[in-house]
Amino acid sequence: MPIPAIVSILHRVSGGGLFLLLPFLLFLLDRSLGSPESFETFSAVVGHPLAKLLLLGLLWAYMHHFCAGIRFLLLDMHKGTDLQAARNSSRIVLVVSIALTVIIGVKLW
């Protein structure tokens, strides 16, 4: 499968996942801000390695969706529509989204 197709599919999957998880994330935010005790409980849960891995995956989904969205906006303006430019921009989206995930993930944890 060509790399632009992979980036496009991941853009759709990450967008759908973010959309479906948004109510759950807002619920967690509401619970964490309810009281100091609930914040401590939330902090303990988020401190678990499995929760950190899940949040890292969510961070990557956001970063990928953001970077691929910028790529698609440029494609809509007919920038980078030839084959080689599309392949290069797809590679850039993958590399930048992973790099941003690592940088932000390290900073957060």
TrEMBL record:
This is Succinate dehydrogenase cytochrome b556 subunit. It holds the Pfam family Sdh_cyt. GO terms for biological process: tricarboxylic acid cycle. GO terms for cellular component: plasma membrane. Part of an enzyme complex containing four subunits: a flavoprotein, an iron-sulfur protein, plus two membrane-anchoring proteins, SdhC and SdhD. The complex can form homotrimers. Its cofactor is heme. It is found in: Membrane. Keywords: Heme, Iron, Membrane, Metal-binding, Transmembrane, Transmembrane helix. The chain crosses the membrane at residues 50-70, 91-108. Membrane-anchoring subunit of succinate dehydrogenase (SDH). Belongs to the cytochrome b560 family. It comes from the Bacteria. One of its GO terms (molecular function) is metal ion binding. Heme binds at H65. The heme is bound between the two transmembrane subunits.
